[in-house]
Amino acid sequence: MTPKQQHAFDKSAFKISMVQHLTQLGHAPDTAQLRDWYLALGRALAEHTTSDLVATEHDQAIKQAKSVNYLSLEFLIGRLTGNNLISMGLYDAIADAVSELGLGLTDLLEQERDPSLGNGGLGRLAACFMDSLAAQQYPAVGYGLHYEYGLFRQSFHEGAQQEAPDAWREPEGYPWELVRPELSQIIGFYGHVEVVEEAGHTYRQWVPSLKIQAMPWDLPIVGYQSNTVYPLRLWEGRALTPFALDAFNAGDYTHAQQADIDAGNLTKVLYPNDNHDAGKTLRLMQQYFHSAASVADILRRHLEAGHALAALPEYETIQLNDTHPTIAIPELMRVLLDDYRLGWDEAWSIASRTFAYTNHTLLPEALETWSEALIARLLPRHMEIIFEINHRFMQEVEAKWPDDVAKKQVLSVIDDKGERMVRMANLCVVGSYAVNGVAALHSQLVKRDLFPEFDALYPGRIQNVTNGITPRRWLKFCNPDLSNLISEKIGEQWPAQLEQLEQIAQYADDTAFQKIFMDVKKRNKQRLAGWVKEHLDITLNTDAIFDVQIKRLHEYKRQHLNLLHVISLYQRLLNEPDFDMAPRVVFFAAKAAPGYELAKSIIYAINKVAETINNDPRVGDKLKVVFIPDYRVSMAEIIIPAADVSEQISMAGKEASGTGNMKMALNGALTIGTMDGANVEIREEVGDDNIYIFGLDVDGVSELRQKGYQPEAVYHSQPLLKAALDSLLDETFTPGQPGALRPVFDSVMGSGDPYLCLADFADYVRAHNDIDRDYRDASQWARKAILNTALVGKFSSDRSIRDYVNNIWQLEAIKR
Ligand code: H2P
After folding, report:
1. Which tens digits make up the pLDDT trace of 518-550?
2. Which residues form the pocket of ligand 1, taking CB atoms under 6 Å from any ligand atom?
3. What Pfam families does the entry give (predicted)?
């Protein structure tokens, strides 16, 4: 706590405020449940953040400074209460206050349901970035959608994933959010374009036939020890047409509610992401709704601050988190051209100096395209503008490469090889002043493989900003014991200056420090084991290696490669009398997008294998497999501090960055990983001895493909692998149901195995054997673990944000 905040906190006033909020919720202190108290706590705290939010909003210095607007369809913020307490410097003071009311702070914090407004890394990155913007006081507004249901809640029924709606605000509302009706917007859809004549000029004007109200809800992004609170503004779709009371009274209930139903559906659910572009109308509607409301709000702020329209790029920059908000580019053009009546060149000059775009994936099937027919129907004026942007862009290409049809074909915003499609990534590159990948290797591949022609046309436009994670949530909050240990050694500044962790490296060989460090790890493992015992009734050996793979389920992330290793360990334990291994618990946590069948089959297979192994008395506590259901931020906060080994095993070239890799290394886990994404940079930081790299690198992958890859040949040449795969076909793991796991087998055999699981299997096993050997040398292992924590300061999202600020956004920090 800073002295200033300490001074400002009045414990007895806060207790009174909590009781008042409790009363307003309709409860009395002597009968209130924990959940009621949690709501009262959240509301009492939110009073403080709301006043800081409003004060920040009205700060003249901020209004006169440049801001970043972070547009993202996902913000996976996780629970806010604990994190905000850390940022406000009030964690201990509030723990004390609530204990005087007879309550435990950690119990209260457990009552909060995670706002799961994202799928995985992309949404979580947006949340870490907001945290780092506020901590460093770079003016920012986050813009997202206020989904009524977050990502589905996952459970398992006989091993198979079940999905249930996640009504994260039910039933009392979320204590941290603030509705801002005065800032609502009206968003149009469908309709037609009219030509209007005025003073000898003709203008085009879109006349939408459907209008939906965008209602903003602000969540406070509280800067760490900074008194700065920025809004995360989430738009909710609401019916605009007044409720049809006449129809209702006349008994036409359905019609009376129709407008409510349509508008209410718009932001009802977050689309689950399987990295496969689905082209659904409702999704495009969400994207436009989000973009249009955000652009309107940005322009409102800009003009209300007294700035000229033409000065927009000097005061506002708009970062597009992936292509999901691309439609904001033609929307800003539409507003400038049709509403403000600027000429094309002036409008384009403003727009193309305002937007910047972050690419998060190279998977071709994930690159968004929308059919021209759909856009033309839903957003007729935007389609005209997109054609005009492309027409002018093609002239630019012609000037650079005359008569080169092939160049035009790859660069064009319109793909006209079949049904005409709009390539959102191309539109982003054309309409942005900067494009970035999310790790050094990824950015290099964006330039080399995805956009080489764009890179030649616009040298320097494509850059790299390596991802990062906020050390406040991902160390200070989630791992208090390790945080305290670090603070004892190097002081309290590290959560704001993570490079300082390097000073911990000097203790890596200190046996006393090693012991304390590993005792902390042990306690975190016990905490996780306690959770597993309570919720899944599996008893774990906390001396075992805690081997962890937690991330969205996707073939390219290769959870099934991990599974094959698990099966091979199991078979060796049973079949090889001399086989010895350090005890291991292999943890999985992952959601599969509901429409992604193979991902669901992989989950099913892992659960079946786990069930068999965990109940086989011959295995004892040598090997256990735990699939933790309903992976979410608050679960990650328990798992990550307990990890010994971090699985980052995507096929090289496919994982753009990864951020779980950073979180686990920071908490003292050793990575087993391919030369992919940010693993490459983690290795650079921690050194070869403190990471387990295996498998083909990007060049190895393309060489193998060129030679012609035959998974079958690998299968026949490796007995361990063959036995593991064969067990998927018999009844070993599915008694009475032979072949139930065949989809996983088939996915890597024959013409399958697109992500080269079999090709990397042998080296993966080798790397795991190295881990097994090293873990048995407790002191050596402790040394490696300490060095991981000490040497990953680079991966603070504070550093990522400074890279954006210095190389792309050009912002000044405004200290409050
Ligand atoms: C994605 C990429 C990750 C990257 C993250 C943030 C889309 O996340 O695949 O490699 O670290 O964005 O840039 P995810 O797979 O977790 O949904």
Report:
1. 999 999 999 999 999 999 999 999 999 999 999
2. 119-122, 125, 360-361, 438, 467, 551-552, 655-659, 677
3. Phosphorylase
